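Figure caption, in words: inputs first, then the predicted bound structure.
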Amino acid sequence: MSIEPSDFRRVLGSFASGVTVVTTVPADGRPVGITVSSFASVSLTPALVSYNLDIEAKRYHAFADAERYAINILAAGQDGISNRFARVNGVDPFDDTAWTQGPDGVPLLTGALGWIACQRWACYPGGDHAILVGRVQALDCAAAAPLLYFRGRYGGFQAT
Ligand SMILES: Cc1cc2nc3c(=O)[nH]c(=O)nc-3n(C[C@H](O)[C@H](O)[C@H](O)COP(=O)(O)O)c2cc1C
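Bound structure (flavin mononucleotide present):
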């Protein structure tokens, strides 16, 4: 049975998520980052997290081959950063984004809600995506509101 891509997107897009930017520094020394909403926690002991990366992404190898990387959890109001790191059209998104070096030099985006510094653990095939699992090396978060993504739009969290 085949699933229509439009049905898949419509239903899976109905699962609200946070937004992250995965950052790393490849061998050429220029930091790179990509917007990712498929982030998930995997295991507590050992501490593992995952995200899914489009194997057709132009920046695929920069992230799939990374030994060390950071997951930056975006805060409310950082939708501009999310868009900047999703569509890289010749402009380096780091030019317009404040950041600092975290553990092992991984880029941490200023103002993010939280960050998780990871070491590569495994890369599994997942159809047209790769499932990248990282071992958590260090992490922290601030008392800020999150940026959320639902049905192709950004929004905020409201406690009930
Ligand atoms: C809110 C949002 C969430 C995204 N989540 C993912 C994701 O989980 N995995 C992924 O590979 N791309 C995701 N993307 C798309 C990437 O950020 C990027 O645009 C795409 O992979 C193309 O990358 P490229 O310019 O290197 O080809 C997301 C984009 C947005 C705006």
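The chain is about 15% helix and 40% strand.
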